[in-house]
């Protein structure tokens, strides 16, 4: 089971993630990012790729899609907060978005 991110490791991860456009959710230990694509096909294609990765990790995003926009929130429900799995999934999402 994943462990909650704390201390220096958490600060370091959040610094990197902020640079990549992620932000902490207010009132909740979670991160969010809005991804914009060229069109719906690109957005949904990316979601499909991420879904396969997430299922392999057994770590699943909270997300919603409207046309070419995908709003993502990442948290580890099992620990009610951020864990290294969220950082890993965030980086994989960024990489797949190009
Ligand atoms: C039983 C199962 O392994 C767990 O519920 C997994 C599934 N996917 C998950 N996804 C996320 N984001 N957080 C979790 O804690 C989590 N737990």
Describe this structure in words.
46% of the residues lie in helices and 19% in strands. With 98 residues, the chain is an alpha+beta fold. It has a single domain, classed as Gyrase A, domain 2, CATH 3.30.1360.20. Strands 1-2-4-3 form a 4-stranded antiparallel β-sheet, with helices on one face. Helix 2 runs antiparallel to helix 3. The radius of gyration is 13 Å and the shape is globular. It binds the ligand C[C@H](O)[C@H](O)[C@H]1CNC2=NC(N)=NC(=O)C2=N1. InterPro entries: Pterin_deHydtase.
In short:
It is built from three helices and four strands, in the order αββαββα. It has a four-stranded antiparallel sheet, with helices on one face.
């Amino acid at each position: 089971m994943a462990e909650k991110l704390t201390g220096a490791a958490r600060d370091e991860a959040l610094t990197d993630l902020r640079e990549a456009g992620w932000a902490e959710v207010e009132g909740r230990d979670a991160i969010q990012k809005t991804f914009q694509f060229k069109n719906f096909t690109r957005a949904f294609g990316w979601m499909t790729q991420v879904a396969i990765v997430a299922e392999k990790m057994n770590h699943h995003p909270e997300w919603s899609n409207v046309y070419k926009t995908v709003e993502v929130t990442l948290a580890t429900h099992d620990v009610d907060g951020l864990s290294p799995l969220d950082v890993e999934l965030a980086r994989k999402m960024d990489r797949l978005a190009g």
